[in-house]
Design brief:
Helices cover 37% and strands 14% of the residues. By secondary structure, it is of the alpha+beta class. It folds into two domains: 122 residues, no CATH class; 76 residues, no CATH class.
Length: 215
């Protein structure tokens, strides 16, 4: 099966197939969950701008060249190429790979809130894919602890208050969120085996803070 072949190839970089299909049946979403990708990235990281994006490009381009010998041409799409940026979130929902969560990020039935999309392969022909999940794990979560775990209530009112979040992690009181990752995400009971390691969480939180800090 083509999806299995792709999964084996990208596993050499700690990456996963996170969904497949789409309108034309040719799209394969690729990303990470848990610490596996982080460990490969740390071992191969270079001193360069946007090191994770650069490492991702090298890894997926390399795998695509190898895969092309077995399955035909493979076009690689990256979420950071733009503007305009490819609609990865919409693709994930369309393929049934993930669902909107109460706090905004998409939730995966297995990996919870601890997955991310690093790229996609567009194949030359449509492939057979497993039937998508039709039920969000949030539907069975009556308590929804993610909505009450944020120390600055950044998710109250149905929207994400980014300035409040950034201001919090800029203060000493926000050290837990900065060093361990978003407390609201950590409160989710789904996919807890894939929570990021502290160094991985800090890397992403530093990036988030730098990208969203007010002048």
């Amino acid at each position: 099966m083509i999806l299995n072949r792709i999964a084996r190839e990208i596993a050499a970089s700690g990456l996963l197939v996170l969904g497949a299909g789409g309108k034309d049946g040719r799209l394969v979403l690729i990303g990470n969950a848990g610490p596996d990708m982080w460990r490969y990235f740390c071992a191969e990281r270079r001193d360069e701008p946007n090191p994770l994006d650069a490492w991702t490009r090298r890894s997926l381009d390399r795998a695509a060249r190898t895969l092309a010998d077995d399955i035909g041409p493979v076009a690689v799409i990256y979420p950071f190429d733009g503007p305009p940026y490819p609609p990865f979130q919409r693709w994930a929902v369309t393929t049934g790979a993930a669902f909107p969560s109460p706090i905004g990020p998409l939730i995966h039935p297995v990996y919870g809130l601890w997955h991310a999309y690093r790229g996609a392969y567009r194949l030359a022909e449509a492939i057979d894919v497993p039937p998508p999940s039709e039920t969000s794990p949030c539907d069975a979560c009556a308590d929804r602890p993610c909505l009450s775990a944020c120390p600055v209530d950044a998710f109250v009112g149905g929207h994400y208050d980014v300035p409040a979040c950034v201001a919090h992690i800029d203060r000493v009181a926000g050290a837990d969120c900065l060093d361990q990752g978003c407390r609201a995400r950590r409160a989710c009971p789904v996919g807890r085996a894939y929570i990021q390691e502290p160094a991985q969480a800090r890397f992403h939180m530093d990036h988030f803070r730098a990208a969203n800090r007010l002048p």
